[in-house]
Amino acid sequence: MSSDPRFSAFLKERIGLDVASVGEAIIERAVRQRCQSSQAQSAEAYWQHLQNSHDEQQALIEAVIVPETWFFRYPESFATLARLAQVRLAEIKQMRALRILSLPCSTGEEPYSIAMALLDAGLAPHQFKVQGMDVSPLSVERARRGVYGKNSFRGADLEFRDRHFTEEAGGYRIADRVREQVRLQVGNLLDPALLANEPTYDFVFCRNLLIYFDQPTQKQVFDVLKELTHVDGVLFIGPAEGSLLGRHGMRSIGVPQSFAFSRHVEQAPPVPVFVPMPAPTPQRSAAPIPLKPRPFSKPCPPVPPAKVAPADAGELLSQIATLANEGKSAEARAACERYLSSHPPAAQVFYWLGLLSDVAGSALEAQGYYRKALYLEPQHPQALMHLAALLESQGDSAGARRLQARAARSERAESESKR
C-alpha cells in the first residue's frame, strides 16, 4: 500500500519533498500510520480520502515532517546576526526596524533564538521584528504556546534560559518580552504568492530545508529567497546548502561557521567581512559549507590495537559528539585523534572528522574521511548524505543520487527490521 508512487508525488507537489533525500521508508511509514488512523481499507481508499480532505492532506504532511531543532542551533550564526544587525541599523540610519524572517520556523526555537540574540546584543524592542513561518500548523501552534521541554535546550551554555524563560510544570515558558518580538504564521515556501505584498527582509534564515528538494525545486526556492531578501541583506542557510547558493549568485560573507550569504557583487560587497573568530561547529544533523578544495593536510596515523576497555571508547565517542555539538572544533578534532591513537578505526569518528574538515573548507579532505567512514560502515546514514551533498556541489549529480538511494535503502531495511 505505502509504496504507491502517488503519495510521493503528492508530497513532492505540495511541499517539494524529494523522496530520495529522506528515503522511501519515511514516506511508507507515514502513509501506513495515516491509513490506520483514517481506517482506510486499501491504498485506493486512502488515496481517495486524501484527495477529498484538506485536513488529511495536512495530517500526512505532518506525519512526514519530523521537526529537529533546538535553541541557538549553530551558535555562530546568531553571534554573526547580532554584529550584522548593528551594522545594518547604522546603514539605514535607524529610520525603521530591522525585518528578519525565519522559515521554516518549526516549533519556534529559531525565531525566538533570533529575538533573544538581538535583545542580548543590546538592541531595543522597537529596532527589530522577527517573522516566523512554517508549513505545519501544529508546529506553529506549539511555537505560539512558547513552552519547551529539555530537548530544546542543548549544549553546555544555557544561561539564556535563566534570562528568558520561566520554569513551570510543563517545561520552560519563554518570556513575553521575547514572544512580543516574534510574529508567527502558517505558510508554504513553494506558494508563488508567499509574502508577495511584504517589504523585503534584512535577514532571512532558511536552514536545512533545501537539501530535501531536487534541483528544479531548489532553483524555485532560491528564486523566492532572493526575492524575499533585501539587496543588501544576508541569507542564513544550513551547513549542507552553502555550495548550492554559489550557483545562484550568492557568496559567503566570510565568517566561519555562520553559514551566512549575501548577493554576489564584484566591486562593492554589501556586507562587511569580519575577521574570522574561533567559532562552533554545526550540530550533528548538519552538513558543512564546502569551500575551495584543499589537499589532505596529512594522512591519518596508523591505528594500534585497542588497549582500553570498550566503555572508555564509548565515553570518548560521546565526548567527541559533545565537543562538536558545542562548537569546539579544535577540541573535537583532538578527541578524534586521541580515539584513533588508542582504539580500532570507527566509522563515527571518521564521520566527525569529515564534518570538521568540511566546516573548515577542506572539501577534498572531508570527502576522504566520509569515504573511510563508509568503508567501515557502508550504510552509515550521515556519511552517505553528507558525501552526497559534497558530490552534488561538485557537479556529480549521478554520484549524489546513488548515495541518496543507498541511504534510502538503508532506512527502508531498518524500518522493516523493526516491524
UniProtKB/TrEMBL annotation:
Q: Which GO terms describe its molecular function?
A: S-adenosylmethionine-dependent methyltransferase activity
Q: Record's Pfam families?
A: CheR
UniProt repeat feature TPR, residue ranges = 347-380
Describe the location of the CheR-type methyltransferase domain by residue ranges.
6-241
Q: Does the keyword Transmembrane helix apply?
A: no
Compositional bias of kind Basic and acidic residues: 408-419
Which controlled-vocabulary keywords does the entry list?
Answer: Methyltransferase, S-adenosyl-L-methionine, TPR repeat, Transferase
Q: What's the EC number here?
A: 2.1.1.-
Q: Which InterPro entries match?
A: Bact_Chemotaxis_MeTrfase, CheR_C, CheR_MeTrfase, SAM-dependent_MTases_sf, TPR-like_helical_dom_sf, TPR_rpt
Q: Which PANTHER family match?
A: CHEMOTAXIS PROTEIN METHYLTRANSFERASE
Please report the name of this protein according to its UniProt entry. Answer: WspC protein
Its source organism is Pseudomonas fluorescens
